[in-house]
Amino acid sequence: MGVGEPTVTSSFELQTTTKRRLVYIGAVIMIVFAAVALTLAFLNDETGPQAGGRGSDLTLASAQKGDPNHFPIVTIPVDDFTKVAVSGAFKVFVSVGERASEVSLVGPRAMTADVIAVVEDGILTIRFREGAQRSWKPGAGVNVVIRTPNLSSVNVEGPTLMEISGLGPKGDSFAATTQAAGSIDIRRIDVGKVSLATNGSGGISVAGSAGEAIYSTRGSGSIDAKRLRVTRAKMTVAGAGSIYADVSGETEISLGQFGSGRVEVVGGGTCVSQPVNSDRVECR
Predict the structure, then answer these.
(1) Is 75 helix (H, G, I), strand (E, B) or coil?
(2) Phi, psi of 220, rounded to the nearest 5 degrees
(3) Omega before 275 within 30 of 0, i.e. cis
(4) Pick from 111, 225, 118: which is nearest to 176 by CA?
């Protein structure tokens, strides 16, 4: 009766089998990592914000906030611009960043259909078409979202409420003007020269820094520039308006002969006012 000989596996065969298993496991791991990387890249392309786009997404979210009707977003392609002029009753959110120029509308279809947004000579003009009488209130008005990489001036006519956010205006100069009851809130600027003017009962508030400032109020409007640090300034108040400012150097102040307007300047600078020693000027 024969006895079978034991099977003997050489060390070479064991090494070869082990290497094959390691190669197989390594290949599987590489495939898994590649699949994860492709999935993440796809998700970033679809949902990731562009450079400077996060602020724009938040701005659009602000425009949709308080909208119980969930109105659709109407996007209007426009040419490049550096100036904005708005006329009528709107709530406007301006985002200054790195995204291309664009205008979006949020509101009832019947109202957004009446909105005209056009760029001419570098000025974006937004208004309602002729004959359309519109007002604004939460849930029953048109919110406008404006995106632009550069902004040098804004002008508001009527009861428009405007907020400027994002990177904010930069460069040599920036100007903002209100007509009637409009208001402008500028979250941040960094410019060489800033000019702010209110005509009527509107108001402007601003934060940031600038080398030189020119402030003017006509009517009962106000300019709140205590959060805007400037080196020197010129101010004019005609009527019942008021100016609040932060100036480290010299401030020239001119008060209208008739009216009850006031000026308050902080920052440790010096004030030269006309008329001299007016009790409507406080400088410290």
Answers:
(1) strand
(2) -105, 15
(3) yes
(4) 225
Q: How many CA atoms lie within 13 A of 113 on its CB side?
A: 3
Amino acid at 250: E
pLDDT digits (tens, 9 = 90+) for 217-266: 999 999 999 999 999 999 999 999 999 999 999 999 999 887 899 999 99
CB atoms within 10 A of CB 259: 17
Tell me the one-letter amino acid at 42.
F
SS3 64: helix
Task: Calculate the average pLDDT of the chain.
Answer: 83
- Tokens 């009861």 sit on residue: 159
Q: Look up the pTM and report it.
A: 0.77
Which residues, listed in sequence order, are joined to residue 76 by a DSSP beta bridge? 103
Tokens of 26: 């390594």
Segment 183-230, tens digit of pLDDT: 999 999 999 999 999 999 999 999 999 999 999 999 999 999 999 999
SS3 label, residue 147: strand
Q: Which domains does the chain have, with CATH numbers?
A: 51-168 (2.160.20.120), 169-284 (2.160.20.120)
- How far lies 120's CA from each of 52, 83, 158, in Å? 25, 10, 21
Query: 201 and 219 in contact (C-beta within 8 Å)?
Result: yes
